[in-house]
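Final report, Chapter 2: Outcomes

The project's central promise was a pipeline that accepts a single protein chain and returns its three-dimensional structure in a standardized token representation, suitable for archiving and comparison. That pipeline is now operational. To close this chapter, we reproduce one record exactly as it appears in the project archive, with the input sequence first and the structure output second.
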Amino acid sequence: MKKSWKILSPDPREAEELAYGCGCHPIIGALLINRGIRDKDEAEKFLNPSFYHLHSPFLLKDMDIAVERISTAIFNRERILIFGDYDVDGVSGTALLLEFLTYAGADVIYYLPNRFTEGYGLSTTCVQEIAVPGNIALIITVDCGTSSLEAVKRAHESGIDVIITDHHEVPDELPPAFAILNPKQPGCPFPFSSLSGVGVVFNLVLALRKHLREKRFWDKRPEPNLKAYCDFVALGTVADIVPLKDENRILVKGGLDILDCGERPGITALKVVSGIAAEHTTTWDIAFRLAPRINAAGRLDHASTGLELLRASDEERAQSLALRLNEENTSRQAIENNIISDVKRMLAAEPDWSSKKSLVLAKKGWHEGVIGIVASRLVELYYRPVVLIALTGGMAKGSARSIEGFNLYQALEACGTLLERFGGHEAAGGLYIRPENIHRFRTYFEDYVRKNTRPEDFQPKLVIDSLLSLEDISMELLEQLEKMAPFGPGNPEPLFASSNIDVIYSRVVGTNHLQLQVRESKNPDNRPVGAIIFNAGEDLKDIKRFDRIAYSLRLNRWKKRKSIQMVIKDFEIS
């Protein structure tokens, strides 16, 4: 689908002054301004993220009473239950908290719910059937709990305290928890509200370590270095697609360094089966290689396999778990491809589908654990809001994904009378619906999309940071670009554009990728630059020239050698 290019043009003089002040390449100055950074000190903090720049964890509302309660539980050997969510954010946060509390000598166990039989969040069933019989005195939730009103009430009635650690949107009525750690709750003075679930847990552990230090707890054992836990934080933060700004940027940068050290056998084994370079893990590796494999356990079976992998200390066990997750991920990919094939057949049988502004499709047999991922892929393919519904007997379950600028949660809210339950945010959501209401929901949803969008909303946009001549691409520039990392939401990988590009050489590699050597028509004597276009090999194998290309620049590492590679994201040909 043709994209609309928006080429940014920051003031060249301002960019040059900022770059000079920071001692960096002039192009870096422009990139910083594009990200809203104009001050020299702010730029230096961005380019050199440090743990010294982390906010005090005690700025989180209820932190002081939370650490006092957990400290009491540790000293009195009260039984603690960590209740985590089943996605990567919840699993990594559970692993982090479990490892810290275990090291501190706490009597602690964990519980991850089954996506299919228990659903999201702390439930009254878990309180009654796990916590009460297990003599649990304290439940600590991870990446959930803010909306678990009835379950927290039941725990309170049973004499069990609940500490909620979460980062999701806050409902009008909060549960009667002993403490709620959520930067989005009213009255929370923490200066950064976009922490991930595992990020909230990391702040809890930071505060708890300090609290225990003041009680001279660490006199009897070495105080743990919490930077060693940041690999967990990086996994959950990147997987949960929160903005890589402020505190998230610092923690992910530190976590990537830990991931490169290879200190956890489980993560090392997963990197091997994922084909990740041992000494240079990126946010792309987490998002598209590690996280999908950890998530595959919770989508197809049970999330505890992912948690076992993260905490594995034996190399043989780690390799076994990594292979199992890899196999489950392969199965998940096959299921996704089957659903996409179903969708294409359904659309082919419906000639007028292309005139619609949304896609709402349902079928018996679709796997409810993967329809959300498929919905995201369909948004990329057809660029319109998508709702996929799995018919599994009585109640149907749906997952929805949106396009930029269209508030999906408000759309579901507008159709709320036809839904049994729904939730989510602007870009993604989930719902339960009776099968007999699906046809009317499809009509209502389409009407809402039409009334609340403009024609230009249905053309994907590509934001270009800067025009660039290929002769300006150098190893020095690439090495400075790497200081802009980690990349993700809130700090996208820089995109450049160049015009009149000749293809000197091309070949199809891997699974339909096109590898090229390119150079500018105006500089035929210059050395060509290596490039790649993913998933377009057969379509473009005979290409000889591009009118213009949009691309990112990466250092391609092989063993101890580094080379420059352009990753072409979009192009125009006449």
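Archive annotation: The first strand starts at residue 4 and ends at 7.
This record, like all others produced under the grant, will remain available to the consortium after the project formally closes.
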